[in-house]
Amino acid sequence: MPLRIATWNINSVRQRLGHLKDFTDSHTPDVLCLQETKVQDIEFPLSDIKSMGYEEVFFHGQKSYNGVAILCKNNVESHEKIVWCGKDDRRHMSITLKNGLEVHNFYVPSGGPIPDPEQNDKFAHKIQFLKEMSKWATKPEVKEKKIVLVGDLNVAPLEKDVWNHKKLLKSVGHTPLESELMANLRKSGDLVDVGRHFIPDDQPLYSWWGYRYKPSFEKDYGWRLDHILTTQSLKTSLKDFEVVRHTRGWEKPSDHVPNVVDIDI
User: Fold this and answer.
1) How much is the pLDDT for 199?
2) Contact criterion met (CB below 8 Å) for 164 and 174
3) Cα 146 from Cα 189, distance rounded (Å)
4) What is the reported pTM?
C-alpha cells in the first residue's frame, strides 16, 4: 500500500475534532500535518487524536494563534523544529520515518493586508520567511533526501490558483513578488509541485475559500494556498493526489480543505 500523506490548515484543532475524525475515518492518512492548531501544548487534545489511530503525535503550538502538528500511524525515527526568521512563532515541524522519508510541515505567515514590506511588518515577515525557505532548500542535504514539504504556504502562485487572476494581482497571497518567491523555492530545491503534477497549470485548483464573503465556496471564489512539494527522488513514486473539497461545506468548517498525496515508498 502507498504511504498516504495529508496536509490541512484546520483553523483550531479543538474546535474541529469532529471534522478531524470524519476526515481521518474517510481518508485514513498515514501522516497528517495540521496547521493553525491554535492551542498551547499543555492543552493539545492528545488523547482524542490518539483515539483516531495516531500513536505518534508531535505538536508545537501557542495560545490562539499559529501552531503546527504532525499525526503519524507509523514509527517515527526522529522529529525536529526549525525556528525561522529568528522568531519561534510555531510555524514548522518535521519528522523522519523509519524508511528515511522526511516530512516537513510549514505554516507560512499570511502577510497582513498590505503587500508592501516597508509599510507592513507582517508582509516583510512573510517575504523573509519564504526567502529563508528557499535558502534551506538549496542545501545539498535537502536535495539529496526523500523529502515531502507540505503546509499552508499562503501563496497562490499561478494564474489558475485563484478565481480571478487579474483582479487579485495586488492582493496579498497572489502578488508577483510572492509568486516569484514560490517559484524560487521550487527552483532552489528542484522541487515537484504535486498538485500541478496531477492537475495541469491551465485548470483551476483551489484549497481555500474565505469566510469574509459568505458565498465564496458556493461561487467557487477559491485560492490554492495549501501545497505539497517533494524532492525529485520521489517524483516517480507519486501515485495519486486529491483536494478534499467537500469538507468546506461542513458545518462551521475550516476555510481550508485537506490536500492528500499517495506515494509508493
Assistant:
1) 98
2) no
3) 12
4) 0.98
Residue 1 has pLDDT above 90, yes or no: no
User: Phi and psi at residue 49, in whole multiples of 5°?
Assistant: -75, -40
Cα–Cα distance list, 15 to 10, 58, 129 (Å):
9, 19, 28
Do residues 58 and 95 make contact, with C-beta atoms less than 8 angstroms apart? yes
pLDDT of 74 higher than 90: no
pLDDT in tens, 6-49: 999 999 999 999 999 999 999 999 999 999 999 999 999 999 99
C-alpha cell at 69: 502538528
CA dist list (Å): 35 to 16, 117, 201, 240? 12, 24, 26, 22
Could you give the dihedral angle defined by the CA atoms of residues 90, 10, 114 and 183, in that order, rounded to the nearest 10 degrees? 80
- Rounded to whole angstroms, the Cα distance separating 110 from 39 reads 18
Q: E strands along the chain, which residues?
A: 3-9, 31-35, 56-60, 68-72, 76-80, 92-97, 102-107, 147-152, 192-193, 226-230, 238-243, 259-263
Question: Residue 63: which residues within 8 A CB-CB, separation 6 or more?
Answer: 38, 39, 40
Instruction: Report pLDDT for 161.
Output: 99
Please choose, from the candidates 51, 87, 49, the residue with its C-alpha nearest in 3D space to the C-alpha of residue 69.
49
pLDDT score of 141: 87
Q: Which three cell numbers stand for residue 148?
A: 515531502
